[in-house]
Amino acid sequence: MNNFLKISDIGNLKDTVKEAIDLKDNPTKFIKLGKNKTIALLFFNASLRTRLSTQKAAINLGMSVVVMNFTNDSWQLEFEDGVVMNKDKSEHIKEAAKVIAQYCDIVAVRAFASLKNKEKDKAEMVINGFKKYVGIPIINMESATAHPLQTLADAITIEENKTKHKPKVVLSWAPHPKALPHAVANSFVEMMHLQDADFVITHPEGYELDNKITKNSIIEYNQEKAFENADFVYVKNWSSFTNYGQVLKTDLDWMITADKMKFTNNAKFMHCLPVRRNVVVTDEVLDSENSIVIQQVNNRTYATQIVLKKILESL
Ligand code: SN0
């Protein structure tokens, strides 16, 4: 594998999940693989889990890690071609990508959706800018439209917790005060399409995700009905895709509560974090035994390690 930009880049999901679970018994089994190899982590947005788990995964493989924040610490980059650079942007991606490639063997990039310009977000300006000019393998640490490292960890977590061959998995929208990207939800949907599961998406009308991604997924606008007999409830807020980047609804009707969880088959509660307590989900649900959010976090390391291992093997 050369690049990891979307979940399907991993190849066989089932085998990859199994490989990741096996790795947990001996996380440093492949510590020699990354000797004398460096990964650069580039952040255009905030991060907690992605930043630490990617570093930890690289360390477990014997790699060196360099980290760069493009929020305050760096020159502001220009991604458009042919512009007159007489405003706030100091350096073009053409040079910046080639510069970064002089100092590392793999590059990982986090750059959220703008949620202002749908076409630019769909075109993945930032990550595709790097891909075009960097000339070394590239990993997506959440781009405008996808968060495949999160989704791979979620696939591992579902595999570890499922009690039947074909569980019912519900992706539920929940309220949030801010406009959030579609990336986590998109990748989760793509991953569920690769699984043997009974998959339902539930959200208020107006919150339909990109139908090029949801394809023929079942969409149920009644949240309680969607929750019936669910084995997993995966919760995420996203802003409107149709009315791009807008927050259409802020009341707490769609918050995940213990009463709603009663409709499920004692479902596990999942969320990628960070999560707004008592807006997205009540304390009671998040602190319950059915909440497996910390297991998801732990699996971020192993998911990323498998991705890095596959890339290192192809160098
Ligand atoms: C990001 C998102 O894509 O929704 C990252 C999730 C892994 N989440 C947020 O930006 C939440 C920010 C907040 O203020 O709650």
Q: What do you see in this structure?
A:
- With 315 residues, this protein is α/β, with parallel strands linked by helices.
- The protein has two domains: 7-146 and 300-314, Rossmann fold, CATH 3.40.50.1370; 150-296, 3-Layer(aba) Sandwich (Rossmann fold).
- It is 35% helix and 14% strand.
- The protein has twelve helices and eleven strands.
- The chain has a five-stranded parallel sheet.
- The protein is globular and about 55 Å long.
- The mean pLDDT is 97.
- It binds N-(3-carboxypropanoyl)-L-norvaline.
- Residues 178, 180-181, 183-184, 272, 274, 276 line the site of N-(3-carboxypropanoyl)-L-norvaline.
Supply database-style keywords.
Rossmann fold, 11 strands, single chain, binds N-(3-carboxypropanoyl)-L-norvaline, globular, 315 residues, 14% strand, alpha/beta
Short description:
This protein has 315 residues and is α/β, with parallel strands linked by helices.
Mind sketching the topology for me?
Blueprint: H1 13-23, E1 38-43, H2 49-60, E2 64-69, E3 77-78, E4 91-92, H3 93-101, E5 106-110, H4 118-122, H5 125-134, E6 138-140, H6 148-161, E7 168-173, H7 183-192, E8 198-202, H8 211-214, E9 218-219, H9 223-227, E10 232-236, H10 258-261, E11 268-270, H11 283-286, H12 293-314
Parallel strand pairs: 1-2, 1-5, 3-4, 5-6, 7-8, 7-10, 8-9, 10-11
Bound molecules: N-(3-carboxypropanoyl)-L-norvaline.
